[in-house]
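Repro:
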Amino acid sequence: MTKRCYFVKDDFGEYGLSIVAEDSKDAKRRAYSHDLFTDGDYVDLRVKRLWDVKTKDLEEFELGYIFEGLDGLKIGAYSWYEDTCPICKEDNGRIQEECDIIGCWDCISKELSENE
């Protein structure tokens, strides 16, 4: 059984999640039962394989595992997420990773300028 990571989003492109699945059909099937998609009338879900997430990194996760926030960012399942910054503890919105620093853009910029 091969595990891969897929990003599944609604047909409007507003919401999405990264899920461990065998193939794109399996990812779509598993995503339909997630709370993110059950409270609306979603006719179609779009599925994209995340090539940057390495298969060896997925071995510890079960099929159907959904990456959330920081865990998803660390493994490369997301490029950003919205939450409180782990550095300044402020609710600055978008949290991302840049040069192995995870935080809001203000904190990342500050850390990078201090390291120069």
